[in-house]
Amino acid sequence: MRRERGFTLIELLVVMVILGITLGLVSLNAMPGQKQSMQQDANLAGMFKIIFAGVPGANYQVQKTSDLVNWSNATSAIANSNGYFQFIDPAATNNRSFYRSYRIPNP
Questions:
Q1: What does the angle CA 13 – CA 16 – CA 21 come to, to the nearest 5 degrees?
Q2: Are residues 75 and 52 in contact, defined by beta-carbon separation less than 8 angstroms?
Q3: How confident is the prediction for the chain on average, in pLDDT?
């Protein structure tokens, strides 16, 4: 009996799984640099920095609270061309604070 040339379905699946895991590890190793630099920026200055994602060019209001009940306006911002905007809280302390943002409708 003559065996045909080619790969079995199991062999192809094993190769695809190995490639998927390898690509996942490569992408995970590429990301920490940006995250670590953001954390270092905020920690070095003794402030808290948060990056929000939204709609490019849209206006946003950032609010802060310590009890999740009474929210106060911290700042407003416009998302950049990638949809991101950042807020640095110069009044950040070791106390627990929560932040949120919402889109301000255009008139």
A1: 125
A2: no
A3: 78
